[in-house]
UniProtKB/TrEMBL annotation:
This is tetrahydrofolate synthase. Its cofactor is Mg(2+). Belongs to the folylpolyglutamate synthase family. It comes from Candidatus Enterocloster excrementipullorum. It catalyses: (6S)-5,6,7,8-tetrahydrofolyl-(gamma-L-Glu)(n) + L-glutamate + ATP = (6S)-5,6,7,8-tetrahydrofolyl-(gamma-L-Glu)(n+1) + ADP + phosphate + H(+).
Amino acid sequence: MGRAEEYLNQIPMWTKKKHSVEEVRAFLNALGAPDRDVPAVHVAGTNGKGSVCAFLTSVFRQAGYRTGTFTSPHLVDMRERFLINGAMADEAVFERAFETVRGIVREMEEKGFGHPTFFEFLFYMAVIIFREEKVDVMVIETGLGGRLDATNALEHPAASVITSISMDHTQYLGDTIEKIAWEKAGIIKAGVPVIFDASNPGVRTVIEGAAFRRGAARYPVNSPDFQVEGIRGGHLEVTVRLLRGDSLRLEIPFEALYQAQNAALAVRTLEVLRGPCRQGRAGVPGGERVCLPADRQENEIFRRITDRQIAEGIQTTAWPGRMEQIRPGLYLDGANNPGGIEAFLRTAGEIAASRREKAYLLFSALSDKDYGHMVRLLAEGFVWAGIGVLTLESARGLPGAQLAEEFKKWTACPVTVYQGTGEALPAMLEQAEGELLFCTGSLYLVGEIRKALERV
């Protein structure tokens, strides 16, 4: 572990208070406002935002744009949060960005500002890295929520994207789906188009209302906008309806059914960016969807994106830990809330049915998640041949024994408690030999398994 990473990991020990969006803006300005140098796509949501970022990154790269992508969390290496054309930032660039931000933090502290939180510090590093790497476009994922998130200091992104919204982080974002949607809709800005998952009527009402009030053109994406044709050779075959009236065939390199919606959101975003499409009344409830006016200077660079580049970019997307078959029969999925677990179960069921094989489950969760609801969904939504639970290495990891007790409330399936991933993985792989093993509950679990596989 380098000096920068050691320092960053210690930040939560002494800094917990978030800065306001206005204070984050002041930090960015002190850094020279590098976020104003290039257009950005700002992505929020409960589930799928990382996948949408990955799809967009791959298409931009395919179209010849140098792309900087900021996502979280990382699985193994902290530099995974800072991607240049889909690859981790160079270690030397990472260290230089850290030193730059650390220097400005000292200056801001002398002016009375508090030390940035872990996420804020990383966001500042991201825009510095992207400036040094001379990217053409940034893809920025929110950390938590949207309205009060550090990334919302982006003043005028090229587009705002809101993915699937479900119940998660209720202690911070609200105890209803509408309250959570309102927080996510906080990224919508005047004159900036918003592309969003409209599958939930309550969520759609909130987002469309926010877009209308802020004068933002809105582009809902719902089930009629795409069709899953089938799963073949570990890929989804999907048809997406385009704004101009025709359709685009996609081969998505994942088996997870939920990736069809995420890919459709990415395609719609790219359509809007490259505009124009057709005339209509933007920002008016019930009005036709339109693409951007031709005179938006910041979007001129996106005009040359073609349908072929979109299809090829989607097809070559890499995004680990999202129903990823990392070895034959071994699947890793970072679902970490009830909505994500429901989507996970739909795909796990399809895979198990198509292969006619038994399925085993390895599960773990963080203590601040709705683990009780997730466990019940997993127990009642699938017939498992065996279940293993463990305690994550994270300080927020829930004890495996507690998870086992939760499972026993809802299923008679045998549940084995393991001390950690190092013990659980080889035992579960042996138990599920020749069958299927699904690992889910947290991206932290995915990261631990990827590291453990190097030793198995």
